């Protein structure tokens, strides 16, 4: 039987996440009859979710209110009831796991910019990748390190103040990013979904809260997408950039993590051999 943990940050986020997900489903989506045409709430009611998960309404209510940690069996039942995808299910499990163990994240070593320190060996690797734009992202998508080609493809990170070095902040506050990315909306929504996953690690992180507050004020779309609580884990993909100097760049990107600093991500961009993008990257590198 799960023990009550009153209003732990992870449980508050878990309850809010479940509430958002049930608001997106109608009775017909889950095979229930809609006998009340005058619903006062959007989506499913709590009692309908409880029915689908085969638990009592009171039990589910306490979960949604952040008052207890659901068992693994109940979590699995809620995943099925709310038709969560793999990323959403992983997010839910992570929130519950952190709430159960209530572990305090270990402070990361700090760099001169205030972010996690990047090992010298990784910085050397970045410098050796002369034909591959590469950056290292830390918690909250802080930009911790980069190579010269990345500054020519994306932005002049060397000229930025430490507080400006955040990938999501740049996406939403730098007008040049909206011109650079061919599908800015898709990139921006993905950034919000990835940032939302960090709440599973430390939802009470004051730096994350400050960043979210800043961007909610700065951009209405960010606020809407953040409130939607969509989550995503993306480790590879393709993006198209409209570079102001060399033209269109089609880049494959991959994310690599290493055990020595699990909160950091090495993001590599590459072009297909013999492609126009490869030639344009080479031209940028010579500039």
TrEMBL record:
Coiled coil spans: none
GO molecular function: DNA binding
Organism superkingdom: Bacteria
InterPro entries named in the record: Cro/C1-type_HTH, Lambda_DNA-bd_dom_sf, MLTR_LBD
UniProt-listed Pfam families: HTH_31, MLTR_LBD
SMART domains, per the entry: HTH_XRE
Protein name per UniProt: Helix-turn-helix domain-containing protein
Source organism (scientific name): Rhodococcus koreensis
């Amino acid at each position: 039987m799960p023990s009550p943990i009153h209003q732990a940050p992870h449980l508050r986020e878990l309850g809010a996440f479940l509430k958002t997900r049930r608001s997106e489903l109608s009775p017909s989506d889950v095979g229930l009859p809609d006998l009340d045409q005058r619903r006062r709430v959007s989506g499913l009611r709590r009692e309908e979710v409880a029915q689908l998960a085969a638990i009592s309404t009171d039990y589910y209510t306490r979960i949604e209110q952040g008052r207890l940690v659901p068992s693994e069996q109940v979590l699995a039942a809620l995943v099925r009831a709310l038709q969560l995808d793999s990323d959403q299910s992983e997010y839910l499990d992570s929130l519950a796991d952190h709430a159960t163990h209530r572990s305090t994240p270990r402070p990361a070593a700090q760099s001169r910019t205030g972010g996690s320190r990047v090992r010298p060996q990784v910085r050397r690797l970045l410098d050796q990748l002369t034909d591959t734009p590469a950056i290292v992202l830390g918690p909250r998508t802080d930009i911790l390190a980069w190579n010269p080609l990345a500054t020519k493809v994306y932005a002049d990170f060397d000229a930025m103040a430490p507080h400006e070095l955040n990938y999501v902040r740049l996406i939403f506050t730098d007008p040049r990013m909206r011109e650079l990315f061919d599908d800015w909306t898709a990139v921006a929504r993905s950034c919000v979904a990835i940032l939302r996953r960090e709440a599973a690690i430390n939802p009470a992180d004051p730096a994350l809260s400050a960043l979210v507050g800043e961007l909610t004020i700065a951009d209405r779309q960010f606020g809407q997408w953040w409130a939607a609580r969509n989550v995503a884990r993306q480790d590879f993909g393709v993006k198209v950039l409209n570079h102001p100097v060399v033209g269109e760049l089609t880049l494959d990107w991959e994310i690599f993590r290493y055990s020595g600093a699990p909160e950091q991500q090495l993001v590599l961009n590459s072009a297909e051999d013999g492609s126009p993008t490869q030639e344009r990257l080479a031209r940028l590198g010579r500039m």
